[in-house]
Amino acid sequence: MKPLLFSELVLEPEALRCVLGQMLLRPDPPQSILMVGMTGIGKRTLAHSLAAAWLCPERTQRGHCQTCLVCQKWSDSGEHPDLRVLKPEPDQIKIDAVREIRQWANFAPAVAPFRFVILEEAHRLNPAAANALLKTLEEPPPRYHFILTAPASDLLLPTILSRCRIVRLGALTTESIYQHLKARCDLPDATLHTIAEFSEGAIGRALRWAETLAAPETESKSAQGELHALQNLLRVFARLGTASLEEALRLAYEFREACKALEGGGEERSARAALALGLEYLIQWYRDSLALGHPNASLRFGSHRAEIAPLAKRFTAAERRRDLQTLSEARRAILGNANAQIVTEHLFIQLLRAG
Ligand SMILES: [Zn+2]
Prior knowledge:
Elements (H helix, E strand, L loop, with lengths): L14 H11 L6 E5 L6 H13 L27 E4 L8 H10 L10 E5 L7 H12 L5 E7 L7 H4 L3 E4 L5 H11 L4 H11 L3 H12 L6 H19 L8 H13 L10 H21 L13 H10 L2 H19 L4 H13 L3
Parallel strand pairs: 1-4, 1-5, 2-3, 3-4
Helix pairs in contact: 3-4, 6-7, 7-8, 8-9, 9-10, 9-11, 10-11, 10-14, 11-12, 11-13, 13-14
The structure holds zinc ion.
C-alpha cells in the first residue's frame, strides 16, 4: 500500500501530531527515530507516512505532496527507491541484512533529498546485527536516516536507545475507535462495538476488520480468520474460571493455536508478535476481572462480563494481580527469545494453580 498522508492518520496522544508536524517543517529529519507502541497500534503506518513526508522536497506539516517527482516513485505496494525496510525473517534480523543496508548507504539518494531505512521490530535484531547497527548509528552516512519500531523501548540496547529520538504511540479508547468506525463503516452497531472491544485501541486493526465484514468477498481471508481466532481466544480465556490444573497444558496448546491464526494477518505479524498480542488480550481479560467489582468501571470486553465473572469468583484480587505480573513477564519472555511452548505451558500452570 502507498504511504498514507500524515495529516490523515489518527494519532494518540493528539499532541503528537503537533510535535511531528513541527519536525516535518525542519530542513533535516532526525537522525534516528524509535517508535514505541503495542502491536497493531499503527507504528508501521506512521513510519511510512513520515518517511514519505521527509523524502518529499515539497512536504508540508500535512505530509508529502503526493504529486512531485519523488512522490510519484512510490509503487502501489509501498516501495520507493530511497527507502529500505528491514524486518525479522522469520524471527530475527541478522547481521547480513544490516551489512547490506550499510552498503546501500554508499550510494547517494536516487531521487529524494534523503534515504530512509525503516527497521521493523528492532528488538528482534540479534546481538551481532544490533552491534552493526549501533556502529552505523554512531557514524551515520550523510543524508541517511533511520526509523525503528518496537513494542517497548526497554527491549532495545541502551546504546541504541540513546541514539534515537523516541516517539510513543498510545492506544485509542474503545469509544473513540467505535466513533471512527461508525463514521466510516456501514455495519450494525453491535458489530462495531465488538470490533472496537477487540481492537485494543489499535485503529488500523479495527478498520481492517470492519472493512472485511463490510465486503467479505473482496477482502482478505486472513482478516476473517483473525476475527475468528480472536473469538477462539476468548473461549480459552473463559475456561480459566473453571478449568482444572490438569487442563493447563491443553489450554496452553489451544492458546498457541488460536494465536497462530493471528499470524500473517494483514499486518504480517511474526509468530512471536502474534503470541504477544494474544497475551495482551489475556492481560486485558484479567484487568477486566479486577474492574468487575467496580460498578462504573468500563471493561474492554464489556460484552463478556458473564464469562469473566467465574475468574473473579475463583481467585482473589491479590492472586489475580500477581497473575498480571506473571502475564507481563511471559509476554516479555515471548518478545525475547524464549521458547513459546515452555513459556505458555508454565504460564497456564501458574494461572490455574490451586488458589
Ligand atoms: Zn512530493
